[in-house]
C-alpha cells in the first residue's frame, strides 16, 4: 500500500462505488421499464430497443450478470476500505468499525439507493443507454454466470420451486387501469372511447335500447290516411311495422322507399306498404352489447327488436345506439328525448329529468352511483323502491341525491327532480 498514493486509493474506492452504482441502476431500469413500450420502439426500428428486448428474453442470465457483478464490486470495495484502515490506523478495532460503517453508508447512498431511484424514474432512457454494455458483460461473464445459475437451478429443484412460473395474461380490468393511468400519453377523448369499449362486455342491449313506450312504429291496422300522415312526420329512416298492437311486428319499413309511393298518383293501400317490408330482426333482452355489435356486422343489420322470454317487445336497439355507447352521442336526438346537455345541475344543485331517463346516462353525466342491477330507468327505480305507484309527490333519498317525483301520468312517473346532497 506504501507504493500506492493515497489519492489513487481514494480514486479506486470512488471507481468501485461508481461501478456498483452502474449495476444497481441497470437492475432497476431493466426491471422497471415497460416491455410494451420497448416492443413498440423495437417494431419501429430502434436497434437499442431490440437489444434491450433480447436481454430481457434472457432474464436469468441478465440478473446473474448484474447481481454477480454488483456483489463482487461491493465485496472489493469493503476489502479495499478495510485494507486502507489497517494500513493507516493499524489493527484498531474502532478504526475498522468506523471504516466498515463509512463504506456501508457510502454503498447504500451512492451505489444502491440513489442509482435505483434514478433507474426507476427514467427506466427506458437508461435501459437504452446501458444495453450495449450489459450485452458485452453477458458475453464476458458468461462462464461464471452459467456456473452460478447451475447451482441456483439445482437448489430450486431441491426446494420444488418452478424455475419459470407461468406468465399471467393481462385481464380487462388491468387494461382498464393502464388506460386510466395513461395520463397525458392518451388524449382524453381516446381514453373515454377505450373505457367505453371495456364497459361493453358488462352491459346488455337492454341498457342501451329505446324502451317500448318510446318506440316510433307504424300500425297497419289504421286507415291509409293516418299511415301517410305518420310517414310524412316521421323522424327515423326505418320504422317497425305492426298490426293492431306492438307485439305483432310484421316487418321493418324503409321510410324513403315508402315516400316514393306518394309520387305514383294512384290511390295507396295497406298492401302497397306491406310489399315494402323487410323481415324483422329479433334480439333476446339479455344479449350483451358487444355480442350484438358482432351480430349486426355478421347479419348486415342495423336495427333489432328486443323481446323478453315470452316474446313480448321490450324495446328497440340500433347500430347507432351501440356506436354512441362507445364514442358518445353524435346523432341528432329525437324530439323530447333527454340530451347530454340536459344532464346538469343548476345553481341550487337540482336537475329535472323525465322518468324514462336511463339510469346509466344519469350516472355517467351527473356523477351519481344509482344501482344498475335492477330497473333501467328512473321511473322503474322509484317504483321498485316505493313498491307502489305514488298518488302524489314523494321524495326518496338515494345514493348521493334526493329523488323527488314532480309529475305523474298514466300510472308512471313522468317528471323527476334530482337534488344533489
TrEMBL record:
Gene Ontology CC terms, in alphabetical order: plasma membrane
Location of the CBS domain: 209-268, 276-333
SMART domains: CorC_HlyC
MF terms (GO), sorted A to Z: flavin adenine dinucleotide binding
Protein name as annotated: Magnesium and cobalt efflux protein CorC
InterPro entries: CBS_dom, CBS_dom_sf, CNNM, FAD-bd_PCMH-like_sf, FAD-bd_PCMH_sub2, Ion_transp-like_CBS, Transptr-assoc_dom
SUPFAM superfamilies linked to this entry: CBS-domain pair, FAD-binding/transporter-associated domain-like
Pfam families on file: CBS, CNNM, CorC_HlyC
Bilayer topology term: Multi-pass membrane protein
Location relative to the cell: Cell membrane
Major location category of this protein: membrane
The family this protein is said to belong to: Belongs to the UPF0053 family.
Domain spans labelled CNNM transmembrane: 2-189
Transmembrane annotation, as ranges: 6-33, 62-88, 94-114, 126-147
Keywords noted in UniProt: CBS domain, Cell membrane, Membrane, Repeat, Transmembrane, Transmembrane helix
Signal peptide location: none
